[in-house]
Amino acid sequence: MTLVVKNLHAIVKETGEEILKGVDLTVPTGEVHAIMGPNGNGKSTLVSTIMGYPAYEVTTGTVTFDGQDVLSRSITERAQLGLFLGMQYPAEIPGVKNIDFIRQAMNATQPEGQTVPVLEFLQQLNEAKQLLKMPDDITDRYLNVGFSGGEKKRNEVLQMMMLKPKLAILDEIDSGLDIDALRIVANGINHMRTPQFSALLITHYERLLEYVKPDRIHVMVDGRVVQSGGPELADELEKGGYAKFEQMSKDGVHE
C-alpha cells in the first residue's frame, strides 16, 4: 500500500499560479513520514491535491497508491482506496451531528451494500473517545461547532481511528495544541501504527515528532522536496532553520 508521488506539478485553478513544481515522494506501507518546511511552500497544497481538493489542478505528474492511479478518482473513491485527510482547519457544520457524520463516513468506505453494525460502531467510538480523552457528549454535538481548537484536532484523529485508513495524511494536526493535547493526539496516531498502516504528517514543529517517531523526514521548499533523511533531520532543522534548504532549492539541488 505504498504512496508514490512522481514529478507532481499543480496550479491554483483560479489564478494559474504554480504551487507544486515537481514533487517526488514515496511513503511505503507501515511507515510514518513527516514533511517539514517554511509556510507557503506547498505542503498543504500537496496533501490537498492528493485528496482531490478542487481548487488545484494537476498539470504534470502522477500519484499512485497500492499501484492504482489516484488522480483519476473522485474524493469518495480515494477514501475507498484507504486514504484519509485530517484537515488543518476542520470545517464547522451546523445541523450535522458529529456521530452521524462519522457513521456515514464509515459506511461510505465499506464495500457496496454493507454497513457497520450499530453496536460495533458504538463500541469502537467509545473506545476511541476514551483513548483521546474526549467528553462523552462530543459526538452528540454538531460537527466542530463550538469546539475548541484542541477538540477539533482530536476530533480529526477520532475520525481517523474510526475509519481505519491505510494511509492517514494529517495536515498540521499539532498546530495550536498545548503539551497535554499534543500527547493525546500523538497517542491516537501511535495507536494506529501497524505494518498495514502508514501516515504522512505535515508539521512545523519538532515536538510532535518527539512523540510520533517518524521513519523518514522530507524538507519541502518552493514546491519541491529538496532533502529527505532520518529523524536526525528534524534536529538539524530545529538548530539551523530552513536557510540551508532554501539555498538548495535556489541552486536546484535535491537530495
UniProtKB/TrEMBL annotation:
It holds the Pfam family ABC_tran. Residues 3-247 form the ABC transporter domain. Keywords: ATP-binding, Nucleotide-binding. It comes from the Bacteria. PROSITE patterns: ABC_TRANSPORTER_1, ABC_TRANSPORTER_2. The keyword ATP-binding applies. One of its GO terms (molecular function) is ATP binding. Belongs to the ABC transporter superfamily. Ycf16 family. This is FeS assembly ATPase SufC. It comes from Limosilactobacillus coleohominis 101-4-CHN. The lineage of its organism: Bacteria, Bacillati, Bacillota, Bacilli, Lactobacillales.
